Amino acid sequence: MEPKQSQSNLTGLTDVTDEALFVALKNGDAAALSVLFQRHGRLVYGLALKILANPQEAEDLTQEIFLTLWRKASTNPDCRFFVRYLVTITRSRAIDKLRDRTRRLKLVEKVGTMSNDITPEPTPVEKVSNAERSQRVNHALSELSEKQRQVIELAYNQGLSQSQIATQLDIPLGTVKTNTRQGLLKLRQILLDADILIYE
């Protein structure tokens, strides 16, 4: 529904109350909409800007509010306090837009997180390389003493702390630290000799 191009039935519109203009608007008076916009456009924009913190979105919402007033004028309730009504619908629409924006941002963040969590499928060459590396590491571990191999496997394969390893093996904590340090040094040397770098 577009504003009628007919002459307004109201005379001296600048002196007419908001409530009377709203009634005229419901009767299809386009001039009434123009006056209401001139009077309260800044109010709507200011409130929208305060909530949305985005000038373009606030401007778009201001236009949307007044277009809605025109297009749905005949179904709008009888408004005795027009400014209060205008503030209410502006705040409601702005909050809805803010929630929509928040949901979109969360969706983008979720998709981004999912993308970061995706591990690319290794290429055939990488699979062979990883298999060879694993075999060499296992071979290097077999060259350690049993105590050294035990503490390293418990630490790196099961994620146990040195205190937990000491409790599980029933040996002093100092012994665990010594075996770990000596085992890693020996393991590093074996792997370096085999051209495989390992980091503690």
Automatic annotation (TrEMBL):
It holds the Pfam family Sigma70_r4. Belongs to the sigma-70 factor family. ECF subfamily. One of its GO terms (molecular function) is sigma factor activity. Coiled coil: none annotated. It comes from the Bacteria. This is RNA polymerase subunit sigma. The keyword Transcription regulation applies. One of its GO terms (biological process) is DNA-templated transcription initiation. NCBIfam families: PRK12519.1 (NF009172), sigma70-ECF (TIGR02937). PANTHER family: RNA POLYMERASE ECF-TYPE SIGMA FACTO (PTHR43133), RNA POLYMERASE SIGMA FACTOR SIGZ (PTHR43133:SF62). InterPro entries: RNA_pol_sigma-70-like, RNA_pol_sigma-70_dom, RNA_pol_sigma70_r2, RNA_pol_sigma70_r4, RNA_pol_sigma_r2, RNA_pol_sigma_r3/r4-like, WH-like_DNA-bd_sf. Keywords: DNA-binding, Sigma factor, Transcription, Transcription regulation. Residues 36-104, 140-189 form the RNA polymerase sigma-70 region domain.
